[in-house]
Specification:
heterotrimer; A mainly alpha (274); B alpha+beta (253); C alpha/beta (752); A: 274 residues; mainly alpha; two-stranded antiparallel sheet; 8 helices; globular; C: 752 residues; alpha/beta
């Protein structure tokens, strides 16, 4: 037997040997592992196209007291009349670009640095990895150790800013209790659309991992902070569904924008309830 | 009840090997490990595989079944079609010793690199007082049976041999998180998590969580919270400022 | 270093890696790791030999918890109560001193784990929570959900790593003083000319290469023997290696007939038959029903237990919420009782289709609560049997779980008859008597693992610098040749077939209920297996060859099975883990007998002899009422207990102790009886030393240090224990609480 003649082994086996089992196939998975990243890819690409188009369109974002979430808060004098937040236009006419571009940086940043979306785009776009136990196509991998991906650590700041946006979008929903003439005490389908959008965004933000950390996750002794522990428990529950909220709030924003656009185009008249 | 199942089992060693075809009896209620045992007893007595408890508690019989990292003792044959060929291969990330047995020394090396539990110096045995809610987070991580499926699946080392040196892998980053959340651990592990154990290599693609037979939510409950704690320590100027002003580590509350 | 030239002469057939250590621990489960840690604390260079990977030991399978009378949940608990429970559980066949040490030291061992990072479940005031378990009077089991064994092994494993990190900091080498040899199997222990332990030979499973450990002290911590049975909760490692190595090295085994069949193992699907369903399921409200839906355990409460156990389902159900005012459900009877009851139900045709009974927790607790309290059980059934225990009952039946018998050891030092050889944990015998209480195993590992490590280290010290025993090369060669034999015999019988035949033989003929003719048949078969074993062959090479490994393990299983069968045939009574069809009752005469197994003169089998059981120390006897002792002791013994009887009637002693009525507190603070304690212990130990040294033939200087060690241990236990006067108060309190819940667990003749 060949093994009988092997000289005494080394004191300990070399810890990191490249002598892996030689299996040619990149994966032996037999299920449809490619389906999920593919769907992710398609949906995100579709959203990007839609959002880019709408952001550069610079029109049809305000109608009947409803403002598209892509354009709120509208802070430049370029904004269509009444769409700005109480006439507050700190940016003046300084920005020549579409007001949406100034705004979308933040939600975009929030989602780009989101722990869920990171998984989604690393898998679907960068194929790192495409699916579990499926080899990735890259020769080198440094993860989030260096620029630019190390910037993902700034997620919490986007979270804070996101909260401000949530307040504003919620306010937009409340403003939608006015009719086209600006009189309070009315309600339309658009009101519901904006409120639903705001709610979904709140759920998405509150279920965020950074939120979970800030609210209590960072503590060492929950028992010394009963209130924060309670909040943490609640946020943890939401956090279980973070992926779900990430997707439906994305659809929510797009749909809310599309709704406003359709109303603004006049393709559709915003049905009022009272 | 029983049927003849088709199996492909990788056999070989570091110098080479391939998938061998077997036809073997499969009975109702069996798991993949039963079939491997039957192969040993009837067709290939020297086929190497590790196993101990056969109840999903020791984490010895890790392998890749139809390409998915699984415990052989926890993979029921009923999850496959009768005509389906079941492929069993060793863990890919570690050097193979023989057949389904790999050299998992990497994990023991990494285990040693994590600074051990550091209790308060003045606390005597029997005096430890901890509240249940304070120990629960770490307890979840201590459910780990060290099957190394997460270590095997993580693409950071699975696809990149060179990262093995700098990356501890999910199991040991979770160990760092466990100690950092331990109510009586006094060491600060956040900087080390990033700088020594390579937390930055984790791109939270959650494969570790997907393959964990203990259903530990490794990514959501250990790795991401640890990343957030690292941000507190290394990247967040506000937290840093706060800790200076309050003259104590704000996470140490 | 002794005779280094020896090392070089032997390059003939086999290159053998050599290592020299102070202490070699065989087995990396709870006992082995605890022993290694202690030896390392004592400054020794230690090797841990693990048959599996480091951290995979069978200890991880322990679910319920570790029994220690910390009194965190019920402050009435103390070591005396724990001692009583243990003795009752073991039907008074326990080595009293081991039961005593165990009860006293268990809390410290648990607390120590916390300082190494263990995270037990907590009480409201932040202490370690304790749970109820069969046979324990108070909630006593420190636990972590239902994965306590895993917590224990992980904590010890991480302690080993911590010590290695210390060594790394000091010497630059993690393995300078404490090294784990994973996936290494020991095939023989080696002795020097004086009969002292000199080392051990083994092989690396990965490469099939042999390795020699030169060491003056070896600690066996190899666990049990369950792999000799078909239906077992034990893993493949449980092949009785420690038992066999000890026998082959000249040590003895005690009471090997006592094998615990855990009442609730899974019975379906066939592939998981035997896997454990934790007792906590019953502790947390699970009930046993037969196929007729009847909660049958009410029919099986022996009369002596009747006062303690509920008679109606209503009362039993109230107990879960109010344990002070209700009696326990009969599902929580000791394991042997429950196992036999299930066996009877199935034999009477009231079993489930798969030959078990139903264990139902789904109708007892809300689903959420079940998942929280029994997470691993939930997953085990969900994933292995596709049964949702929150909605369906489980099917369970008895499974071979634990061997109470084991290597005969000195109760204080864990030393065997062979100088330098120690044993701890399941592979050591005596502690549990005829039946082990749930939860006493994990604490046993810690208490006696530590002691083995400590006294092995002292033994090494006593040898001095030049006194290390030398290994004889011929022994090494013989061991290697023996181990290589199956490989040179590729046409031999398939070892798996022989293993299977052995399992079936033991399971059917020396199982739960034993008949003399069946045991006789088993012994005949075992004789037939011997020549077959010599002819087994293994194909393939030496690298990680499971067929070869099985062939080697068979030697150990066969010799241990022979001990079990011979002892089972000899003991003509039923007690704990040994039930004889033809002698259905316990016999006081047999309680006085330990059955000792040793290798026969020509090494082809085992001899059995009777040995009187050590006399229980007076102060410990006083913890029991005479009425209870009557169930176990012979009339002559009882006559000798006149003093106890008198005390029982009217507690003698000074006025102070008579008054200590509400002496719960004094019992807690009182630690121990002192002088008497030490004196008796010393006497017992002395006797054992005489015995062991007598067999040693010419005992030179070497044996004396060993003796010194033992004597020290006795005086040590005296010095660190509290004042003598507390003894009286404490024994008083013992009988006090005894009468309060009178006739606790007197397991007498009625068990059938």
């Amino acid at each position: 037997m060949a093994t009988d003649t092997i000289a005494p082994g080394p004191e300990a086996p070399a810890p990191l040997s490249p002598a892996r089992a030689k299996i040619e196939q990149k994966t032996l998975r037999t299920d449809r592992w490619w389906l999920s990243p593919l769907l992710t890819l398609l949906v995100l690409v579709a959203f990007i196209f839609y959002a880019t188009f709408r952001a550069f369109e610079d029109a049809y974002y305000y109608a009947d007291g409803l403002i598209s979430p892509f354009y709120s808060p509208c802070l430049s004098t370029k904004c269509v009349p009444d769409s700005s937040l109480g006439g507050f236009t700190p940016f003046g006419d300084w920005a020549k670009v579409s007001p949406a571009l100034l705004i979308l940086i933040f939600p975009l940043g929030f989602r780009m640095t989101c722990y869920y979306y990171r998984k989604a785009y690393y898998r679907a776009f960068w194929q790192s990895p495409p699916a579990c136990a499926v080899a990735e196509p890259h020769g080198k991998y440094t993860g989030e150790t260096r620029f630019p991906l190390i910037l993902n650590n700034a997620h919490r700041y986007f979270f804070y800013v996101g909260l401000i946006f949530n307040v504003i979008l919620t306010w937009d929903g409340i403003l939608a209790f006015r009719n086209a003439q600006g009189e309070w005490g009315h309600m339309s389908l658009g009101t519901l659309v904006l409120l639903a959008n705001a709610t979904l965004l709140w759920l998405y933000s509150l279920s965020c991992h950074s939120c979970r950390h800030a609210i209590g996750g960072r503590l060492k002794h929950f028992s010394k902070h009963p209130l924060r522990y309670k909040s943490w428990t609640l946020v943890s529950k939401l956090n279980h569904k973070h992926m779900l909220f990430a997707w439906i709030s994305l659809f929510g924003v797009a749909l809310a924008d599309a709704y406003v656009a359709l109303v603004s185009h006049g393709t559709f008249s915003n049905p009022t309830f009272f | 009840m029983g049927y003849k199942g088709k199996f492909k089992v990788w056999r070989g060693d570091a110098s080479g090997g391939d998938l061998n075809d077997f036809e073997v009896e499969v009975n109702e209620g069996e798991v993949v490990l039963d079939v491997i045992h039957r192969l040993q007893a009837t067709q290939a007595p020297d086929m190497a595989c590790r196993w101990n408890c056969k109840a999903g508690k020791c984490g010895s019989c890790s392998a890749e079944i139809n390409g998915k990292p699984r415990l052989m003792c926890m993979t029921r044959m009923s999850t496959f079609e009768e005509g389906e060929t079941v492929t069993v291969t060793p863990l890919r990330t570690f050097p193979v010793i023989k057949d389904l047995v790999t050299d998992v020394g990497f994990n023991y090396t990494k285990a040693r690199e994590v600074k051990s539990f550091t209790p308060p110096a003045d606390l005597k045995p029997g005096e430890y007082r901890m509240q249940q809610i304070d120990v629960e987070r770490s307890q979840e991580f201590r459910k780990c049976i060290e099957c190394y499926l997460c270590q095997n699946t993580c693409h950071a080392v699975r696809d990149h041999e060179e990262n093995k040196e700098n990356f501890a892998g999910p199991r040991y980053l979770m160990r760092v998180a466990e100690l950092d959340m331990h109510p009586l651990d006094t060491a600060d592990r956040k900087k080390a998590a990033q700088e020594e154990h390579g937390l930055g290599y984790c791109n939270i693609t959650k494969c570790c969580t997907e393959v964990c037979p203990e259903h530990i939510r490794i990514t959501d409950n250990a790795l991401i919270p640890l990343k957030e704690r690292v941000v507190d320590k290394k990247y967040d100027p506000l937290v840093w400022l706060g800790s200076k002003i309050r003259r104590r580590s704000s996470t140490d509350a | 270093m002794t005779e280094p030239e020896n090392t070089q002469n032997v390059q003939n057939a086999e290159h053998i890696e050599r290592h020299s250590y102070d202490v070699v621990v065989i087995g990396a489960g709870g006992a082995g790791l605890r022993a290694a840690i202690e030896a390392r604390h004592a400054g020794k260079r230690v090797a841990i030999i693990s048959k599996s990977l480091f951290g995979k030991a069978h200890t991880v399978m322990a679910e319920g918890g570790a029994a220690a009378a910390m009194g965190n949940v019920n402050p009435k608990d103390n070591w005396q109560v724990h001692f009583r429970d243990t003795m009752r559980g073991g039907k008074f066949l326990n080595h009293f001193r081991m039961a005593e040490l165990h009860a006293k030291e268990a809390p410290d061992r648990i607390w120590e784990l916390e300082t190494w990072g263990a995270l037990f479940d907590r009480t409201k005031d932040g202490k370690i929570s304790q749970r109820n378990f069969g046979g324990h009077e108070y909630p006593r089991l420190a636990h972590v959900g239902d994965r306590t064994g895993l917590e224990l092994i992980r904590t010890l494993q991480q302690r080993v790593v911590a010590l290695q990190q210390q060594d790394q900091a000091e010497s630059g080498d993690f393995e300078a003083n404490l090294r784990v040899f994973a996936e290494t199997t020991i095939v023989r222990l080696l002795k020097d000319e004086q009969g002292r332990i000199a080392g051990a030979v083994g092989y690396y499973r990965e490469t099939g290469q042999f390795v020699l450990f030169e060491a003056p002290a070896v600690i066996l911590a190899t666990g049990g023997i369950g792999r000799s049975y078909t239906v077992t909760s034990n893993s493949w490692e449980y092949t009785g290696d420690g038992h066999a190595l000890a026998l082959l090295a000249g040590a003895t085994l005690v009471n090997m007939e006592f094998i615990q069949f855990h009442p609730t193992g899974m019975v379906w699907p066939p592939s998981v038959k035997g896997i454990l369903v934790t007792e906590s399921v019953r502790g947390d409200g699970g009930v046993l029903r037969n196929s007729e839906g009847k909660r049958f355990m009410f029919d099986y409460v022996p009369d002596v237990f009747r006062k303690q156990y509920a008679e109606t389902e209503e009362e039993a159900d109230r107990w879960y919420d109010d344990q002070e005012n209700n009696r326990r459900p009969p599902e929580l009877l000791p394991r042997d009782e429950v196992a036999r009851s299930i066996n009877s139900e199935v034999k009477a045709g009231r079993g489930t289709p798969n030959g078990g009974v139903y264990l139902d927790v789904s109708t007892r607790l809300p689903a959420e609560e079940i998942r929280r309290r029994l997470p691993s059980m939930y997953h085990q059934f969900k994933e292995l049997a596709d049964v949702d225990i929150t909605a369906q009952p489980m099917e369970v039946g008895p499974t071979c779980h634990y061997v109470m018998g084991g290597v005969e050891v000195d109760p204080d030092t864990q030393g065997t008859k062979v100088p330098g050889l120690y044993a701890a944990g399941e592979c050591a015998g005596g502690m549990h008597g005829s039946n082990r209480l749930g939860g006493n195993s994990l604490s046993d590992l810690l208490v006696f693992g530590r002691r083995a490590g400590l006294y092995a280290s002292e033994y090494v010290d006593s040898l001095g610098a030049g006194g290390k025993p030398a290994v004889a090369q011929a022994d090494v060669d013989a061991a290697v040749d023996e181990a290589l034999a199956p490989l040179g015999n590729a046409d031999g019988e398939n070892p798996y077939t022989l293993h299977h035949d052995l399992q079936v033989t033991m399971n059917t003929l020396v199982g739960i209920i034993r008949k003399p003719e069946e045991i006789g048949e088993a012994l005949t078969k075992l004789e037939d297996f011997k020549p077959r074993h010599h002819k087994v062959g293994s194909t393939g090479g030496r690298r990680f060859n499971p067929g070869w490994h099985v062939a080697l393990d068979l030697r150990n299983m066969l010799i241990v099975s022979e001990c079990v069968a011979k002892a089972a045939l000899e003991r003509a009574e039923s007690r704990g883990g040994h039930t004889r069809d033809d002698f259905p009752t316990m016999s006081s005469k047999w309680r006085q007998v330990n059955l000792i197994c040793s290798l026969n003169a020509d090494g082809t089998g085992v001899d059995l002899k009777h040995q009187p059981i050590p006399t229980i120390r007076q102060d410990l006897l006083e913890l029991f009422e005479v009425s209870e002792l009557k169930k176990y002791f012979t009339d002559e013994e009882l006559a000798g207990l006149a003093g106890v009887a008198a005390e029982d009637a009217a507690p003698a002693g000074d006025a102070e102790s008579v008054e200590s009525d509400e002496s719960d507190e004094s019992a807690e603070s009182a630690d121990e009886s002192a002088e008497l304690d030490a004196a008796v212990a010393a006497a017992v130990i002395e006797a054992e030393i005489e015995e062991s040294t007598a067999t040693d033939g010419e005992v030179g200087e070497s044996a004396i240090p060993g003796q010194k060690v033992k004597a020290e241990s006795a005086s040590e236990s005296a010095s660190d224990e509290s004042e003598p006067e507390s003894a009286q108060a404490e024994s008083e309190s013992g009988s006090e609480s005894e009468s309060a819940d009178e006739a606790v667990a007197e397991t007498a003749a009625e068990e059938k």
